[in-house]
Write a structure and sequence with these properties.
The complex is a heterodimer.
Chain A (H helix, E strand, L loop, with lengths): L11 H34 L27 H6 L2 H14 L1 H13 L5 H31 L12 H4 L12 H26 L6
Helix pairs in contact in A: 1-5, 1-7, 3-5, 3-7, 4-5
Chain B lengths: L1 H26 L5 E6 L6 E6 L13 E6 L8 E2 L2 E3 L4 E4 L9 E7 L5 E10 L10 E10 L5 E9 L13 E9 L6 E2 L7 E8 L3 E10 L12 E4 L7 H27 L2 H7 L13 H6 L2 H11 L7 H6 L1 H8 L18 H5 L7 H8 L18 H10 L13 H4 L8 H9 L13 E4 L5 E3 L1 H18 L4 H7 L4 E3 L11 H6 L15 E2 L39 E4 L5 E3 L27 H8 L1
Parallel strand pairs in B: 18-19
Antiparallel strand pairs in B: 1-2, 2-6, 3-4, 3-7, 5-6, 7-8, 9-10, 10-13, 11-12, 11-14, 14-15, 16-17, 20-21
Classes of the chains: A mainly alpha, B alpha+beta.
Chain lengths: ~200, ~600
């Protein structure tokens, strides 16, 4: 389908500039989200023995393990754009509720400082914002005809996590943080790969 | 003794324990373990192990590496895909590397002894240490004007192993530099761009620069790159620049010193030029400087004439005698009331309200304020001769103007006419002699009720007439009589006001009775005065006043102002009587030379006395 051209002339570069900007903004957002999760994770580690390679005692798998994600560069590059975008959205949706509850439990614990509590809230908000941002990017891409319309709002997290919907409730706070930290890095990477696949000339 | 023994034994025990523990700690065999696992590009990674201090390791191949990928519950341990026994390294290629999935590694020796540590589990993204950048070079950005310091731009290429172009890896760079022989490095902030500026390097010293990288969001740095050396030779300062700087500096300093000296030495003129005074607010009307310097005349002028006024006008009497005189001078030069009076009219006429003259005008011009004491404005209905005489007598005299004074000789025959003085004046075409002051000070009050006015005007009149007579030289006996200090003052019945009024003027018809020559006061009688010593008791005489009338008694000149001694029963002011004076009449000398021993001496008197 033909994309509505926003540029007077049919220049490819002109089309893609706003999209590139959108991508940049979203990527920056995700980087910040990852940074916050990293900080919180490090803070949590103070209550545990610091692990050498920051693995620690991950007793369980993360609740998002069910989402199939490309685990390598080639995989990420081979996968279709629509699929990659969808994976990103799935991840973001999956973390909405857990982070909110995490923040709730954080604020109830006295041993955590206000700083940490604020960070957890920020993290929770960021997931929302980032999801909206990614949706906008997807919309734009669909408008420009870069990807098909198969990518849509995946809706409630319950649709994704059918059996594991309550799994995260059993995760300890520390594990949750670890998982989120990992997932936020995934999101960041996927977004960057997506950008460099679609608009490679604008800062890759 | 026992205690000492006890202590010694205890010490021995402890020491042995320590040694034993020490031995255990230090000399205990270390099991095989992994020293490090590292990834350079987030696609592959490698792990190194160490056999430890275990014995019985015949060959390095005995130890085997197994790994576990915890991406599913049913995962199992697999052997290292690629060994490098020389380095004791296990390399995981891209196919065997998965990101975001925990790996666990273990070493297995013979007999399936496994050496596994929890800490050896990791995710690949956490063990990334990117390669250092390549192709470092630097360019000179700018040199400071002094030539002592400079800025340098260092640029490089990202490590080839890191896939930055696809966005797979986001790398940050950290530059460190130090002087050639220094020990500590100076680190700049980590940033993701492939170039950075180093500020403030000193010229002449060589610097060493190297860069390292890390993954954005992860803490581990890679190795440092090879160092590059930066040096900028010291640029010799241009002679002209130095000279100019020196000249400017010294010039400015000199100027400042000069200004300071000027200020210190209080050179007013220069100070005015350099540091002009801030204008102070000017208060309209009164200048404080005037008050300070004590220039009373100006101050008085301001307060009365030029300024808003407000001070009592009697003060002006002290200083405005002359202006009065000038003002009232009836001659062509003065234009009272803004009108050019013809020579025929005189101030007297005007003052007296004679036909066409308005008195009020005169007064209004001279003094802004109304002052009851002045009695400047006589009602025009002063028809009484006495009043006129009184008024005329009260007018300030004109000391200098000879012509202003009626010749007594000449005027005498015409004394019958009522308005003779004025008319005669008119006929003469000269201003009347009755240029008396408008106001005269009451010198003394006679018991009869007369008021002795200041002789100042009369003196002047006398003087002038004297001069005239001398000039003419026609008078014989008359001169002698004229020489008498004949002051005519109007004696007025005191009515308490201190000033004569028309009412009182009428009363001046009584001949002077108790006039004593030596009393020193003068009386003016409303009778026409004649040069000839005729009896003054003729009321039909012309109502002008002949100051040098033979009737005039010999009176010593009276001061313009005298002190009020007391009030007598009639509520009259008793002024300070001047001391008795010798009878002046027969003296051919200048009558004005009669000694006047009074409180105040008018300037004229003083002049005459001294002359």
């Amino acid at each position: 389908m033909k994309a509505a051209s926003i540029c007077p002339n049919d220049q490819t570069g002109c089309h893609l500039l706003p999209l590139a900007n959108l991508f940049d903004r979203v990527i920056q957002h995700s980087a910040r989200m990852h940074g916050i999760s990293d900080d919180l994770h490090s803070e949590f580690e103070l209550y545990f023995l610091p692990s050498k390679n920051q693995i620690g005692r991950v007793s369980r798998n993360c609740h998002t393990s069910t989402i199939l994600t490309p685990n390598g560069k080639e995989n990420a590059q081979r996968i279709a754009r629509e699929e990659l975008a969808e994976i990103i959205l799935k991840l973001l949706v999956a973390w909405r509720d857990p982070l909110w509850h995490f923040h709730q439990s954080m604020s109830q614990h006295d041993e955590f400082t206000n700083f940490s509590s604020n960070k957890s809230l920020e993290m929770s908000d960021m997931v929302h914002e980032l999801r909206k941002g990614v949706l906008k990017v997807v919309e734009k891409m669909q408008m420009l005809g870069i990807i098909s319309n198969s990518v849509g709002d995946t809706g409630s997290p319950e649709a994704l996590l059918t059996s594991d919907s309550a799994e995260w409730r059993f995760m300890k706070d520390y594990d949750l943080l670890y998982c989120f930290r990992r997932d936020s890095n995934k999101i960041q990477n996927y977004l960057k790969i997506l950008k460099c696949r679609i608009v490679p000339k604008h800062g890759c | 003794m026992i205690g000492l023994l006890c202590c010694a034994s205890l010490l021995f025990l402890l020491t042995s324990l320590f040694i034993g523990c020490f031995k255990l700690l230090i000399l205990a065999p270390v099991e095989p373990h992994f020293t490090e696992c590292m990834s350079r590009d987030l696609e592959t990674f490698r792990c190194w192990w160490s056999p430890g201090t275990f014995h019985n390791l015949s060959s390095p191949e005995e130890l085997r590496v197994f790994y576990l990928k915890r991406n599913s519950p049913s995962s199992e341990w697999k052997e290292c895909p690629e060994y490098s026994h020389l380095n004791r390294e296990c390399f995981f290629d891209a196919n065997h590397t998965s990101i975001w999935i925990p790996y666990c590694l273990q070493l297995r020796g013979q007999n399936n002894i496994t050496y596994f540590n929890e800490d050896d589990c990791f995710s690949v993204e956490n063990i990334v240490r990117p390669d250092p950048p390549v192709s470092l070079n630097w360019t000179l950005l700018i040199v400071s004007p002094s030539g002592l310091s400079y800025d340098v731009m260092v640029s490089w290429e990202p490590p080839p192993s890191a896939d930055v172009s696809t966005g797979w890896m986001r790398i940050e760079y950290e530059i460190q530099y130090r002087e050639r022989n220094a020990t500590t490095w100076e680190a700049l902030e980590t940033q993701p761009h492939t170039q950075q500026t180093i500020y403030g390097l000193q010229a002449g010293t060589e610097y060493e620069v190297h860069i390292r990288t890390k993954m954005k969001g992860f803490p581990k740095f890679g190795d440092f790159s090879d160092s590059i050396f930066v040096k900028v030779t010291e640029i010799p300062l241009r002679e002209s620049a130095v000279l100019l700087t020196l000249v400017l500096t010294f010039g400015v300093a000199g100027i400042l010193i000069l200004i300071m000296l000027i200020v210190v030495s209080h050179q007013q003129r220069l100070m005015m030029i350099l540091l002009p005074p801030v204008p102070a607010p000017k208060i309209k009307g009164i200048d404080s400087e005037l008050l300070k310097k004590g220039k009373l005349e100006e101050l008085d002028f301001i307060l009365n004439g030029g300024g808003l006024g407000g001070l009592p006008t009697y003060i002006s009497d002290y200083y405005q005698d002359e202006p009065w005189v000038e003002f009232i001078e009836v001659d062509e030069e003065d234009a009272d009331c803004g009108e050019k009076e013809d020579q025929k009219s005189s101030d007297t006429q005007r003052l007296l309200g004679l036909p066409q003259r308005s008195v009020g005008c005169f007064s209004a011009d001279s003094h802004p304020d109304d002052d009851s004491g002045r009695a400047s404005c006589y009602d025009t209905d002063l028809s009484e001769q006495d009043t006129h005489l009184l008024a005329a007598s009260l007018l300030p005299g004109q000391p200098e103007d000879e012509e202003a004074f009626l010749h007594p000789d000449e005027k005498a025959p015409a004394s019958e006419t009522n308005k003779s003085p004025l008319i005669q004046t008119e006929s003469e075409g000269k201003p009347t002699w009755i240029n008396t002051d408008l106001y005269a000070q009451v010198s003394n009050v006679m018991p009869s009720g007369g008021v002795v006015l200041s002789p100042g005007q009369q003196l002047r009149i006398q003087e002038n007439t004297e001069k005239e007579s001398q000039k003419k030289g026609t008078l014989g006996e008359d001169t002698s009589k004229l020489n008498k200090p004949q002051f005519q003052l109007l004696v007025v019945d005191p009515d308490g006001s201190g000033y004569t009024s028309e009412i009182t003027a009428r009363q001046i018809s009584t001949p002077p009775s108790s006039l004593v020559p030596g009393e020193g006061y003068q009386t003016i009688y409303p009778q026409p005065m004649e040069t000839k010593p005729a009896a003054p008791s003729e009321p039909n005489q012309s109502p002008y006043i002949l100051p040098d009338s033979p009737q005039t008694r010999l009176f010593a000149p009276v001061a313009d102002y005298t002190v009020v001694q007391e009030l007598d029963t009639h509520q009259s002011l008793l002024l300070n009587l001047p001391t008795q004076q010798p009878p002046p009449p027969c003296l051919p000398q200048h009558p004005l030379k009669a000694p006047v021993a009074i409180g105040y001496v008018t300037p004229d008197l003083l002049g005459n006395l001294s002359s």
